[in-house]
Amino acid sequence: MSAEALSLAGKVAIVTGSGRENGIGAGIAFALARNGAAVTINYVSESSAKRAEGVAQKIRTEGGKATVIRASVNEEGAKILIEGTLKAFGTDHIDILVNNAGVGHIGPTLDLPLNQIRETFAVNLYGPLFMVRAVVPHMPPGGRIINITSTAARMPLAAYGVYETSKAALDYLTAIWAEEFGKSRGITVNSVGPGLVETDIVPSDPEFRKAAVEPIVRMTRAADRPGTIEDIGDTVLLVSSEKGRWIAAQHISASGGVTAL
């Protein structure tokens, strides 16, 4: 008897903010595509266009299906993403939505520029809200919504206050949506909270690493290292698969044990 696989064959997925080849979104897209899902790669800025196409091309080279759509996660952009995905894959349904797009403006409440405060909530909180409103009418029973939040939502620090609050609010919405779309539509909703993950947005400056990276590595229980995009991708894969059918309304800390209980 062969071992059961985490197959996503025939599934269609959208991963927002997945246009950087070494970013968390790309790691998630690779994991879903590797297990059979057709995946929409999403990016926003023109400067990321080539990188987003590179993510899709890697998926195609490995035998998977991918399309690339440039759109913001605002009300209009959500419609573009849904309609573009349905057209690209010749389907009438979307099975998996991963709300990964986010911004991480950091600073004390009185010092953070107002435009950065607005952008943080617009992308990190309103973005998933608009995506869910647009995708749920096209999501069949067995659908999966995964919100990428952060361990920061469970570790309040003054300098990260606005960012942490936006992610904590998304965790709260996750539980609301799990009830709203669970029994009525057969859709599970969960959040995955990465800890420190080595991507190109983590500064390489030695002083920063000594002050911010090394302490988190020391707190990590699973291994003496930061996380990788593959660690996060595989966590999302588990929740996205049929094996995750009884996981709902949960914040899953994909941090190597930085947070506990």
Automatic annotation (TrEMBL):
Origin superkingdom: Eukaryota
Keyword presence, Nucleotide-binding: no
GO MF, one example: oxidoreductase activity
Sections of the chain in a coiled coil: none
Pfam families: adh_short_C2
Keywords noted in UniProt: NADP, Oxidoreductase
InterPro entries recorded: NAD(P)-bd_dom_sf, SDR_fam
SUPFAM superfamilies: NAD(P)-binding Rossmann-fold domains
Keyword Ubl conjugation: no
PANTHER family per the UniProt record, alphabetical: OXIDOREDUCTASE, SHORT-CHAIN DEHYDROGENASE/REDUCTASE FAMILY (AFU_ORTHOLOGUE AFUA_5G02870), SHORT-CHAIN DEHYDROGENASE_REDUCTASE FAMILY PROTEIN
Family (UniProt): Belongs to the short-chain dehydrogenases/reductases (SDR) family.
Descriptive protein name: Short-chain dehydrogenase, putative
